[in-house]
UniProtKB/TrEMBL annotation:
Belongs to the calycin superfamily. Lipocalin family. Highly divergent. It comes from Sapajus apella (Brown-capped capuchin). This is Apolipoprotein M. One of its GO terms (cellular component) is very-low-density lipoprotein particle. GO terms for molecular function: lipid transporter activity; phospholipid binding. GO terms for biological process: cholesterol efflux; high-density lipoprotein particle assembly; high-density lipoprotein particle clearance; high-density lipoprotein particle remodeling. Keywords: Disulfide bond, HDL, Lipid transport, Secreted, Signal, Transport. The lineage of its organism: Eukaryota, Metazoa, Chordata, Craniata, Vertebrata. Pfam families: ApoM.
Amino acid sequence: MAAGSAPMQLHLRATIRMKDGHCVPRKWIYHLTEGSTDLRTEGRPDMKTELFSSSCPGGIMLNETGQGYQRFLLYNRSPYPPKKCVEEFKSLTSCLDSKAFLLTPRNQEPCELSTN
């Protein structure tokens, strides 16, 4: 994540491995809202994103809400994030009335983050 080219913008880049094993680069532009902790996703006016601070290296925690859904996400570059990171995430989400916890399996190495 980095500051955007315009004030009040954040850019997030990731490379996501698809089911077929291919790595797909993705980019999101978040717009900061003055006087609020909410981020608005460009192109998704119904979506609101909140970032959470974390002591977990190589990871990011966020809460996304949209039309009819809310999800808490922990992304990490490590195939096996440190146990304390997962426990911190579970602790944050449990106090927010989370009903289920899903840990997706990582059977392959993480994708390389593209440089452009």
